[in-house]
Amino acid sequence: MSHVSLVLCIHNHQPVGNLPWVFEDAHRMSYLPFLEAMERHPSVKFSVHNTGPLLEWFEEHQPSYLDRLGALASEGRVELLTGGFYEPILPVIPERDARGQIARMTRYLSARFNVEAKGMWVAERVWEPGLARVLAQSGVEYVLLDDYEFRLAGVANEDLTSYFVTEDQGVPLKVFPISKKLRYLIPFAEPSETISHLKELADRSPGAVAVFGDDGEKFGVWPGTHQHVYTNGWLDRFLDAIAANGDWLSTVTLAEAVESAPPAGRVYLPTSSYPEMMEWALPTPARREYEKFIERLKHDGTYDAWSTMVSGGTWRGFVAKYEETNFMVSKMRRVSEMVAAAGAASTESGAASADAGTSEGESTPQSVLDELWRGQCNCAYWHGVFGGIYLPHLRSAIYEHLLKAENAIAPGPDSGASITVTDHDLDGHDEVLLESRRLNAYVAPARGGAVFEIDLRGVAWNAVATMARHSEAYHALLEQAASGNDHDGTVSIHDAVVAKEDGLADLAVGDIVPRVAAIDHFFPESCTLGDMLRPDEIDLLTATGRRWAFTVRENGGNAEVAMEEQLTLPSGDDAIECALTKTVRNDGERLTVDYKVSPNASSGLLFSSEWNIALLTGIADYTTLRMADGETVSAEAAHSLEGVSALTIEDRLRGAKVTLSFEPATEVRVQPLQTASQSEGGFERVYQGLSFFPVWGFEPEADLVCSVTLEWETLEG
Fold this sequence. Notes:
7-stranded beta/alpha barrel
């Protein structure tokens, strides 16, 4: 009789920095009931991957889950997979960190469960050919990737009946194709449909290995799935159906498949991921065209045959698509280099063995490596159907852990600040890094001298890690996403169109620059706060788009970068020539941006230096905006405040307060920064922080001299 082997691989993950109640709900709604179902069906085998953030949470809050999982592993019913411990996108992080994270996970599984993990889950199935060598040399023998990635390499769908062998520089690795068909059937279709599909495969390709590999969260966490999978009994019926067809269908672990089945052949996979990811990574205009073309193929009935001829983008496209991703990747690489350099220096000084067998980073304390590696967790670096980079608590956590690692190994100068001039973000232009023990300020002269990172090191907070409003391809769906829509839980999150509230279309616009600090604007005197939030429409000079010449200097502990340029500003039928001088200074304790604006005529303009402060929420219980006289105003509403000399933002979640001082005192217009983005629960409004626009007018043909200073301190109690 024809026979097929089925691999059921479950990948459970929660991001570093996710909210505690999310972990708790995911355990209650998905991880625990799925484990209980595995225990009830002893004839069904699984391969399971839990990521490091989850394992750490289980150890602290639900160790019995790990004990029960370990019991199944000891009985041979579950194979435990390794991976990058904190679930990084492996090709994007330094190779030393990739190797270190894999070793960290493999050691943990050995110590906790007494297993030798040979199989690995690749985060987001993001593949680049050089990974074969890195993984194999890290002790990995086989991985799972999407069947789409094999089809991009020209492998016919009917030939995806077992694992393949690939290599890099002569180092081999086995790769299993995950079935997209099974990913979409399970758990959304009735079990009988999956059984029928597998029976067809058994009849067509006797001895085939079929692989299901997907997120454990789709079994209870995705909207509506808990009722569908558990309350309505889908999972028990599915596992019962597998057992009932045991005469031709058996479940095996990946390890057993490798032992019992021959490879299907040799393959070289291109840089790729699953098809949805490759679509999400495209720039928005290209993604819109991609979607039109895919719809055309479906309309013509040629999608199944030709879809792999259209491969979308690659994960690295997010680094170009979102400047915020670029900032995080650049910071991550810088801190990784610091950690590596500190480890090398420690080894050279005799603090650790310098034998040939000593691995990179071995001289660095594991606690420091863990902070760095937590800062490499992938989820905050990209965006698809999940909130990802749009979620402020995930971005904040990335910087928090990177800064904790930086604080541990590179405290900064004893006094004052240092200057580093380097192409920090690899854009072909130098940035200026002004760093001290208390405060880092990263300046981009090629972007109009904007300050794109302000690290408050004592509380590990990048105060300008905001998220700009980006024009997204899915924003076109907001019109059809009626508020309050719901579904019965049998629809994939990739197909659901739901809005959590009305009015989100007003936020579905794109900012022309990142929402960071010291962004220079010239506005008409008649402009309103609402106008200022759309500077591409009214700004008379997009100063942040200008490339400034600059000089750096250190003086008495001050580290500063000075920029100067001649500008031409439109004014009615005429043009005003204007000299703009801008100096960014870190004195070790505070950051000051000084301006001198020298027009050659009466301008009728307003000058503004835009500052955006990243916050987790504007709710009064956690965030207070306080005037110099002690009066408080809401951090959730817009304000036009007159005669302001200083404003203090008290962030009780971080235990810190930031004060912005304005010289001379002036009108400051304040607006919550909010975005509209897609998540697994639907379209949602996300609070990103506060935007501050101090505005100064011009005296006729007189210089305008003004400044903004940022200081911070911890909150008492």
